[in-house]
Amino acid sequence: MPDKYSAVWVSHSSMGDFLKCPRLYYLHNVYKNKNGRKISIISPHMSLGIAAHEVLEDLANYPSHERMDRDLRARFEEAWLKVSGPIGGFSSLDEEEQFKMRGKEMINNVIKNPRFLPNKCIKLKRETMAPNFYLSEDHNIILNGLVDWIEYLPDTDSLHIVDFKTGKHEERDGSLQLPIYLLLCNALQGRTVTKASYWYLESDKMVEVTLPNKDEAFNAVFDVALQVKEMRVQAKREGEQTFACPKGTYNDDTKAGGCIHCMPYEHIIYDDGQMEHVGVGGFNQDLYKEK
Ligand code: SF4
Predict the structure, then answer these.
(1) Number of independent structural domains in the chain
(2) Which residues, at least 6 apart from 70, have a Cβ–Cβ distance to it below 8 Å?
């Protein structure tokens, strides 16, 4: 039996970082500071997503006929308390209020038209970690992730996977999100996924998307996961420079190098006063926001 603790764990977020650039992957997913913690950046957009997801995903814990009796507005207020203030990345009360209003509007949209939420749903089995499985035992790679919602479709005894979107931008083609969801569902429960949708909560738009087939999904995810694994193995041999920026890693003396994705992390590491430590996150990571 392979050892889960020595495996390389990959997710939509970590592979997304890796696809942007290796150094971003390193700074967000590998690097640990003097407290032994990873570092993460929180923004108002992320906090809005966290609060809205918490309210909606929690509904799966209740029987279908009770779900829409829940006071979703009150639940949103509770969820918002956890991201309120600097720990949510907000720089002012005004900014926070604007984002909170957007969240309230999303919850109002859900209350007006809950779509599939009152239907039967399925939860993937998990222990303390997010649902996960061995993407490859031979390569010791584990894929983990949370599917926002899985509706059960009784007519076909199959599943509809739904991703809640709280941003304004539509998901790009070629994103690994759906392939990852499909692989998680296939590995962790017995029914076939026959439908997938994005629910843009702010515009209340449901967009059905074409599912990749199983082999395409596996190949797309495994290809990136293996690159991550190989780079980590190389880094063990050759050190941190394996994850250097291909365009020139940021140099704090000359201020050269770096780009928009990595700069906030570089500012944290160089402790140059541009980022503010706002607390410790749920995964024991040190959280920062832009000043
Ligand atoms: S700073 Fe370099 S490594 Fe980081 S995201 Fe930008 S180009 Fe990629």
Answers:
(1) 3
(2) 59, 62
